[in-house]
Amino acid sequence: MKFLIYQSKEEADEKADQEGQALNLPFWQDPTNVTRTLTAPIYTLDEEWALDVTDYTTLTQQEEERTVEEINL
Fold first, then answer.
1. Residue 67 — pLDDT band, cuts 50, 70, 90?
2. In terms of Cα–Cα distance, which of 49, 51, 50 is closest to 38?
3. Rounded distance between C-alpha atoms, residue 39 and residue 14, angstroms
4. pLDDT score for 39
5. Using CA atoms, how far apart are residues 29 and 59, in angstroms rounded to an integer?
6. What is the pLDDT of residues 25-63, one digit of tens each?
7. Would you kindly state where each structural domain of the chain is located, as residue ranges?
8. With contact defined as beta carbons under 8 Å apart, do 16 and 63 qualify?
9. Is the distance from CB of 38 to CB of 55 less than 8 angstroms?
């Protein structure tokens, strides 16, 4: 698994929304459907937010370089 670490939930949610929109998940076609994101942020013991980006297609080279394989749960 690959994770991106964020300092705030809002930042992680923004990336998750970006991926959901790129994948044209149901929410982005019809807001009455619930599926909006591929993954949701996880609060870590380090008081940060980890987002599983293993299957994300919208990662930039810089984001790819910042990914980590383990998080502190």
1. very high
2. 51
3. 12
4. 93
5. 22
6. 877 666 666 678 889 999 999 999 999 999 999 999 999
7. 3-66
8. no
9. yes
Task: Indicate the residue type of 26.
Answer: P
Q: Identify the pLDDT of residue 26.
A: 78
From CA 64, how far away is CA 73, in angstroms rounded?
22
Q: What one-letter code names the amino acid at 19?
A: E
Q: What is the DSSP string of 5-72?
A: EESSHHHHHHHHHHHHHHTT-HHHH-TTS----SS--EE-TTS-EEEE-TT-S---HHHHHH-BS---
As given in the structure block, the two tokens for residue 34 are: 């619930």
